[in-house]
Amino acid sequence: MNTVSGKTQIYAILGEPIRHSMSPVIMNKNFTRKKLDKVFLALDANLETFGQIFPVLKQLGLSGYVFTMPVKEAALPYMEILSPEAQIIGAINCVVNDNGNLIGMNTDSIGFWNAVQEKNTNHLTIENAFILGVGGFARAAITQAALQGVKNIVVANRFSDVTFIESFNRFLSRLKQQAPGVTVELIDWQPIAWKPYLAKAELIANGTPNGMNSIGDLDSTFPFDAVRNDAIFFDAIYVPRITAFLKKAKEQGHITVEGINLLVHQGAVSFKNFTGDDVCPSIMKADILNFWKENMKGERK
């Protein structure tokens, strides 16, 4: 890492838990490679503390931010400008300080699509998508899919999650204003009833925590037998790197996209927002894998 001085530009990721974040790793590695006088920190913040922490950081004039759970929505009121995707999604994960004006963006959205297309070596046209979950990442994925021309999107979530469903419906109203040609259907979490939708879907994406840290039943309850043979499977989870859900899909011959691919593709977009420079996602991926190998023995599966 370069020597930090009084002139060094400071960036930070905020969220909780923050200990596992790979953003400082990939950002600092590439700041150093490109000989940029910048440093990237990880700061703990949750919904209770964010309102005290962020106004101070804003006064200090940090050069940029990355937000992770649970503060992607809490940060919205502090922005002077929102990107079109961020306005639709209602959540931000990347902020650039432009002479005191904070510009909020959502790089998860395009990062998701770029990660999928990198693995879409058969050049499959995606017209139908099946998304699991209605949270922040799911909304980012749905938004980019709609903007990229996906015509039909089916979203599965438990109807009993009333607060999430109400928030999702408000999101849909914003989405329809910007992408009136897309059809989004919300269905309940009843895997047996998903089969007719899965038979059409070229892309299936898990945006829930089901499977994180190898906890969950998605791999055993998901009706893999109903999926078309050329469907692409995506999972936003990157701990473990290959979830049981993706492992089973791969065993059945499907192209799979890991959460680490999302992480590095959105990271590459954020890096360019911060610096104006391009960085190859594969380099960021190698940085993460090397870090895991050297520093996290016994912590990962």
Task: Describe the protein's architecture and organization.
The chain is of the alpha/beta class. The chain has two domains: 9-106 and 261-295, Leucine Dehydrogenase, chain A, domain 1 (Rossmann fold, 3-Layer(aba) Sandwich), CATH 3.40.50; 120-257, Rossmann fold. The protein contains eleven helices and twelve strands. It has helices at 23-33, 50-60, 84-89, 107-119, 136-147, 162-178, 195-198, 218-221, 244-251, 259-275, 281-295; strands at 9-15, 38-44, 64-67, 81-82, 94-98, 101-105, 128-132, 152-156, 183-187, 203-206, 232-235, 255-257. Helix 5 (136-147) packs parallel to helix 6 (162-178) and helix 10 (259-275) packs across helix 11 (281-295). The chain is globular.
Mean pLDDT: 95
| Major sheet description | 6 strands, mixed
Number of domains: 2
Give helix % range.
25-40%
Order of SSEs, N→C? EHEHEEHEEHEHEHEHEHEHEHH
Which geometry do the CA atoms define? globular
Rg from Cα: 19 Å
Major sheet strand order: 2-1-3-5-6-4
The CATH superfamily title of the largest domain: NAD(P)-binding Rossmann-like Domain
List the uncertain runs. none
CATH class of the largest domain, anyone?
Answer: Alpha Beta
CATH topology of the largest domain: Rossmann fold
Structural class: alpha/beta
Work out the strand percent.
15-25%
How far apart are the first and last residues' alpha carbons, in Å?
A: 29 Å
Q: State the helix count.
A: 11
The number of distinct β-strands equals 12
